[in-house]
Amino acid sequence: MFGVFHGLFAKKKSVSSIGVGSPRKPEETNDERQSQSQSDHERRKQISVRGIAQVENVTNIKKTFNRHLHFSVIKDRNVATPRDYYFALANTVRDHIVSRWIRTQQHYYEKDPKRVYYLSLEFYMGRTLSNTMINLGIQATVDEALYQLGLDMEELEEIEEDAGLGNGGLGRLAACFLDSMATLGIPACGYGLRYEYGIFKQFIKDGWQTEEPDDWLRFDNPWEKARPEYMLPVNFYGRVEKDDDGKSKWVETQLVFAMPYDTPIPGYQNNVVNTLRLWSAKAENHFHLKFFNDGEYVQAVMDRNTSENITRVLYPNDNMFVGKELRLKQQYFLVAASLQDIIRRFKSAKYGCRDLLRVDFSTFPDKVAIQLNDTHPSIGIPELMRLLVDVEEISWDAAWEICQKTYAYTNHTLLPEALERWPVSLIERLLPRHLEIIYKINHCFMKTVQERFPKGEERLRRMSIVEEADQFGEKRINMAHLCIVASHVINGVAALHSNLLKSHTFKDFYEMFPEKFQNKTNGITPRRWLLLSNPMLADLICEKIGDSWITNLDELQKLKQFKDDQTLLRELRRVKMENKLRVAKYLKEEYDVSINPSSLFDIHVKRIHEYKRQLLNILHVIALYNRIKENPEIEMVPRTVMFGGKAAPGYHMAKLVIRLVTAVAETVNNDPIVEDKLKVVFLENYRVSMAEKIIPSADLSEQISTAGTEASGTGNMKFMLNGALTIGTMDGANVEMAEEMGLENIFIFGMNVKEVEELQSQYRAEDFIAESPTLKRIIEEIEAGMFTPEDPGQLKEVADMLRTNDRFMVCADFDAYIKCQDKVAEAYLDQEKWTRMALMNIASTGKFSADRTIAEYSREIWNIEPNAERLPAPYEGVPESGEATKE
Question: Buried b / exposed e across 85-123, counting CB within 10 Å, b at 16+?
């Protein structure tokens, strides 16, 4: 039923040297080619349960491919480049989406269900081609067609740019959720921004991170469709004036237009194709005549460019005021365009009818659920109130009731500095009417709090949306408080995280609104993170338990009955080694680092941040290096330690951590005494497509954040699903992972949340350094420039931070981490036991499917029942027609 690609890094023959449809070797006879094709089919049958592609479907794919090469790309095989072939392939695959996409929207308009709108400033989609083929169930056919055309599927896949419209976990979660919503048949639409430049490309130069723009659209994007007919106006600045009735009116604004670009989101083999709508900023159509009169044509053009800067780049560095203004502009631009679009769709919901049907907004929450992915889209709360009160002329109380029933808010962080607080002066200048609305919301809320807690003056201050002036005399709007007050549900993203929100971060609000708070533990899509990224493991699982796990990950529990099956354990080891060999080849080609594939692959890949404690990991690497230097004959488990992730451009300490990692890597990898015992690699420009290569090869997953700082994490789930064991603290989703698999199958170390809290007020890193000779020595080596002899003081700040400003208690957990890593090495020596633990990890991942997460959101927050039924295929039932579809 499903297909998986073999040979993640396997190369057939260069596209540039083979024309479309040409034989693979000119000297081969027809019989030889037929024999080769048959043997290839046999090889595929051995590694995949998908079987053989149907001949007529293969023929149709080849015809469509050649048609697109000629009529879409406008090339022939004599001049076509590999990129041309990729675009022809993408268009061929997209043809299989289009009818399903149209039919899905027709179905929604016919049934008029409640719809979910997922608002997020980030969607870290990665590549689309392979995921689309898997979800449509056509990858076997396409793979065979390309093979017959003499083209290399893997090479074409590598040409596609990652759609890096996110910084990390937040955006990748949104992408997984879209996949699950489509797979569960939920009428949903994602709304985001079409950044011209996504997350920056990271390069390591002289050991330091450098950033270059990610111009991901420079070769065009075959997966999106511009919808200029739905372009919408968005206003900024201006002032508020009162009319004769005392009603507020926002006037003299600056106008920018929002152009929608739609990307199809196919569910897994259910013919459902939802939409991700991304907005791009466009300037007004007319120039300012003043500039023409003054002869300032260039100035007029530059002003247009300023307007379009809103969607130029993903999240600028917000250390400067200008950056903050642009970021707030991005947030408002997203919600202003999206809410107009949502209301338009609400008003004209019936299939085939273009007249406005609904004018009664009391039913709005029955047809619309809006999920706020963190506080970034929270300015949508006053915007919805403005649209309802000022535009639709609904009373304040009625509008507020609609608002509260419509919005739900997901919190993603426990770090105080990550909770958004916008300066009042900035909102007043950029969105004056919205500030009025926020003040009124806060005024009404403060009255409610005072009635509930008559003597709670301090509570009023703590719970106010408008915070008192800081040391600079600046009042701020607490956007998390605004979300809590205006939403009917607030959820955390792991059980521990949700409990900490209730007991600490939002304690006052929980005491007032306990019914609003829920937990929705995060999840990942098994389609991308197992079926696509680890096809050999997917095939092995299917051989044992069938393929129903693809849409019901709980089915993996069945693998537990095979924990003593020597044949399966041996096959698991074989699959892991195959994946490690491919990564070893990749590292040699990309980084010129030779590694031992039999070594323990110890992998730490995530955004570089102090709380994620990459620093703790590299300190352990230095400890291992010191052991080898002291005793070159020491017997130890060979280990390859990989780091990957990006530091925010303005985050100095995170960049210093990267520099320390690269300095240690250079020292260790070039020391002949070390040999194969230890290797360190920094994976430059880590991204979704790289994760799909690296994660299947991992033996050990590093999830070592300070307890109480990581909301959930999803990388931990991806590694678990792919059979890596976890070393981690009792933080985020690690707690629930341990519960699911059993503590005997995970390596837990360090302080728990309660112990961290108890130590916090009296924590002195120097006390722990003094008690640990190993740590003391390492810090002194860093300080002395052992790893940066050309500039000995280069990393002194890291040593100083550990001694005097160790906010995330690296020193406190160091000895426990070293001891736990020694247990990891000991366990790795017993490969049968290790593989059994890996199997128990895989078999315990059912809870961490995004399908389960979204089903819970759907039933418990959005009040929508997931639909397991397939929609009719495009060729079933009524003829397709795009004319009546209004999306």
Answer: bbbbbbbbbbebbebbbbbbbbbbbeeebbbbbbbbbbb
> Encoding tokens for residue 863?
């009040």
Cβ atoms within 10 Å of 552's Cβ, excluding its own: 14
Helices and strands (DSSP H and E) totals, the chain: 34, 25
| CA distance linking residue 583 with residue 593, whole number of Å | 11
**Is the distance from CB of 747 to CB of 726 less than 8 angstroms?**
yes
In 206-359, the DSSP E strands lie at 208-212, 225-226, 232-236, 239-242, 248-251, 254-266, 273-282
247 labelled catalytic: no
Domain with 704, as residue range(s), is 578-848
Q: Is 693 a catalytic residue?
A: no
Which residues make beta-bridge pairs with 410? 373, 491
CB of 640 within 8 A of CB of 602? yes
User: Strand runs (DSSP E) across 710-778, as ranges?
Assistant: 725-728, 747-748
Q: Which two tokens stand for residue 850?
A: 């995004």
Q: Are residues 597 and 456 in the same domain?
A: no
> Is 0.85 surpassed by the pTM of this model?
yes
C-alpha 445: how far from its chain's center?
Answer: 34
- The CB density around residue 68, as the number of other CB atoms within 10 Å, is 23
CB 119 within 8 A of CB 381: no
Could you say which of 107, 502, 604, 607 is catalytic? Answer: 607
> Percent of the chain beyond pLDDT 70?
89
- Residues 598 and 481 reside in one and the same domain: no
Q: What is the pLDDT of residue 75?
A: 96
Would residue 774 be called left, alpha or beta, if left means φ above 0 and alpha means ψ between -120 and 50 degrees? alpha
- Identity (one letter) of the amino acid at 90? A
718 classed as catalytic:
yes
714 is catalytic: yes
Q: Which two structure tokens, joined as six digits, stand for 854?
A: 């979204």
Tokens linked to 229: 């007919």
Q: Which two tokens stand for residue 443?
A: 């005024």
Q: Is the dihedral of CA 670, 674, 679, 682 positive or negative?
A: negative
Q: Which of 497, 606, 639, 679 is catalytic?
A: 606
- Would strands 273-282 and 254-266 be described as parallel, antiparallel, or unpaired? antiparallel
Q: Angle at Cα 595 formed by Cα 200 and Cα 814, nearest 5°?
A: 70
Looking at the fold, whether 426 and 282 belong to one and the same domain comes out as: yes
CA distance 482 to 407: 11
Q: Which structure tokens are listed for 514?
A: 């306990």
- Same-domain pairing of 831 and 857: no
308: domain CATH number is 3.40.50.2000
Candidate list 115, 194, 277, 412, residue with the active-site label: 412
Strand partners, 753: none
Catalytic residue, candidates 609, 646, 718, 852: 718
Distance (Å, rounded) from C-alpha 487 to C-alpha 485? 6
Catalytic residue among 376, 421, 612, 655: 612
Distance of CA 542 to the CA centre of its chain: 27
Residues 760 and 638 in one domain: yes
CA 831 centroid distance within chain? 33
Q: Are residues 259 and 395 in the same domain?
A: yes
**Per-residue pLDDT at 34:** 40
Tally of structural domains, the chain: 2
* Spatial separation of the C-alpha atoms in residues 705 and 686, rounded to whole Å: 19
- CB of 428 closer than 8 Å to CB of 435: yes
425, amino acid identity: S
Same domain flag for 474 and 606 = no
Of 64, 132, 525, 714, which is the active-site residue?
A: 714
Tens digit of each residue's pLDDT (9 = 90 or more) over 769-820:
999 999 999 999 999 999 999 999 999 999 999 999 999 999 999 999 999 9
Residue with tokens 């607030």: 490
* Buried-state track 174-213, b at ≥16 Cβ within 10 A, e below 16: bbbbbbbbbbbbbbbbbbbbbbbbbbbbbebeebebeeee
- Tens digit of pLDDT for each residue in 251-278? 999 999 999 999 999 999 999 999 999 9
Helices 55-71 and 139-149 meet at what angle, rounded to 10?
Answer: 70
Q: Which of 55, 24, 33 is nearest to 151 (CA)?
A: 24
